Amino acid sequence: MGNSALKAHLETAQKTGVFQLTGKGLAEFPEDLQKLTSNLRTIDLSNNKIELLPPLIGKFSFLKSLVLNNNKLTALPEELCKLKKLETLHLNGNHLRQLPAAFGQLSALKSLSLSGNQLRTVPAQLCGLRHLDVVDLSKNQIQNVPDTVGELQAIELNLNQNQISQISVQISHCPRLKVLRLEENCLELSMLPQSILSDSQISLLAVEGNLFEIKKLRELEGYDKYMERFTATKKKFA
After folding, report:
1. Which residues form the domain of 90?
2. What is the DSSP letter of 33?
3. pTM value > 0.85
4. In terms of domains, do 87 and 177 share one?
5. Which of 2, 13, 132, 216 has its CA 20 to 30 A from that of 148?
6. Residue 229, domain member (yes or no)
């Protein structure tokens, strides 16, 4: 990646507000981007080899979308949490174990994707985010879903392909949760809170590939109520 090529990308980004440089083997976040802190609305540096996100990321105060899928990030800087306009944050396929303590300050965040990282729990910081619609935590190392999840405002929560064997009953209190994906985990039927069926907003529950047969789910109390929500939702989109 020569300087002239980078320069051309920077000039385009200055006009469009979009900086996209994917699959170029970049080992670090391009320092030259700091010239565009007030221009950029979108940064996409997917499929590179970036190990660190520098603190200067906090200066991109107009940034709406940050995509760094398939890099080598092991941690995120606290400065990231200053991005008050950030709506989309996609960090699939990195090596993240946790989120910054102040992550709950990303008050505009709508779509968060952390599939294929090394998270061991559902981060409590997500519960303060009022506009969150979709959270993808699939393909991590999550073993249980804690009580804090009841505060989560998301509409869709994807926990497929983790190692979940326990789920807090509080998940049925999520005020907006409609879609819950739990495929390919380690759930026994007895560990699935029945209130998800009988007493929640959830209208799509995906639980294939756990330690029970799907038909056993139909025998649980509250399954009829769940099916009513499921069918009503299907009709709405038909």
Report:
1. 1-97
2. G
3. yes
4. no
5. 216
6. yes
